Amino acid sequence: MLNRALALALVTPVVVLAGTAAQAATTPTCHGHAATIVGTSGADRIVGTDGPDVIVGLDGNDRIVGGLGDDIVCGGVGADLLKGGEGDDALYGGLDLRRKAKEGYTIVRGDLVDGGRGDDLLAPGAGARTGLLAFMRPNAVTFKHAAGAVHVDLAAGTATGAGDDTILVDGPLGVLGSAYDDVLLGSARPDFLMGGKGDDTVSGRGSSDVLLDGGGRGDDSLAGGRGVDVAFGFAGDDVVTGGPGGDVLAPSSGSGSIVTGGAGADQVLLPAGLGAPSLLDGGAGRNLLEVISVSFGDKRPVVTTDFGSQTVSVVGTDHDGVTRAAGFGGAQLLGRARWNYVGTDLPDLLLAQGGPLNARTLGGDDEVYSDRFDDVIDAGDGTDRVEGGGGTDTCLNYEQGSCPAKADPGHFRTATRASSALTGGVFGMVPQVRHLLAARHLG
């Protein structure tokens, strides 16, 4: 059994040299233990023995399997995959930096740690990035091969179900769940939590987290915390809930999926044409709905966003349907579609790209930005701004802007600033996370 008190003191995984100067040049150690197996500076494939091993991978993107004994493994520099095996193992990743000299920035490539059976110490390594970019290649712990459900609590540093494991959290960290009904709970730091195939409960708690349902067909619960969270469903009837921060949320494709924003200015993404979730509720803040048309081949579906009746309807795809949408002060319409929009008597913000737009914004001081297609826009009452694209547009009841106008990508920069003002800046996150939505829904 590992000494847990000693393990918790070893927060930063490092490879050090011990012994005399001559020995230090040739004998790496892993947390004070002399290595019995040593890798190279390249990408190694190392398998331990049936007994207790001390394995040091050194440089390179290594794949290391401890074997049957109680093993101690240090991955070293590189994006490593560390598997403990059957015993009570201690697995240490590292802080893996790759400098891009010309571009002048540093990439962090995370380690993946799989303890296996036994009571393991899992230390993927320290995180070096903050914010959303910390989650592109995070250091992570995986329970993909666990024989049953796991309960992970990063605040407590514990994981049960595949043994009684200790997790050292030192910066942004990812957790990948099992094929069963898992509970994944985050920490006060930024976390990346992804469920598996079961009915999972995923909660980010504090900080700014990324929460994914893992692509399985289970009915999952994803709940953001106090920070600016990204929470995406995929399949099944997922329930996605934001927190008090300005969150980016997306439902699953199941007809029973529900998204509920929190008190912050949220952005909710709806992939139109992949199913009709039950409810999208932006919550109490000034929220933005982004409808993304997912069409294939020559199809151009008709997508109608009607904030008066609080519905989004899709016609002309293999998965038509109607979704209730409430609590939004604006919309961005993206992709190959024929877009219809009906606003409210309050100030609306509307951005439309990818197809012709037919819009009525009714009352309020509205802003409308359209694309290069032939649009029909009635801004209604109020002091309204309309910026047409490069098509033959018909615009009514607007006081500011230009319609028809030459195609000008610059007015979408203006639209982005307007969206950021609506949501308190959350709109600026969306280009960074839209590819996550595409990855979840399009593979």
Explain how this protein is built.
The chain is mainly beta and 443 residues long. It folds into two domains: 1-126, no CATH class; 237-427, no CATH class. The chain is 8% helix and 34% strand. It has four helices and 43 strands. The strands form four sheets. It has a 21-stranded mixed sheet. Strand 16 (151-153) and strand 17 form a beta hairpin. The radius of gyration is 25 Å and the shape is elongated. Mean pLDDT is 82; it is low at 1-24, 128-135 and 418-443.
A few lines on this structure:
The protein is mostly beta strands and 443 residues long.
Classification by helices and strands: mainly beta
Helix content: under 10%
Percentage of residues in strands:
25-35%
Number of helices: 4
Average pLDDT, rounded to a whole number, is 82
Radius of gyration in whole Å, from Cα?
25 Å
Biggest sheet details:
21 strands, mixed
| Shape category | elongated
Oligomeric assembly: single chain
Could you tell me how far the N terminus lies from the C terminus, measured between alpha carbons in angstroms? 41 Å
The number of distinct structural domains comes to 2
Count of individual beta strands: 43
Uncertain segments are 1-24, 128-135, 418-443
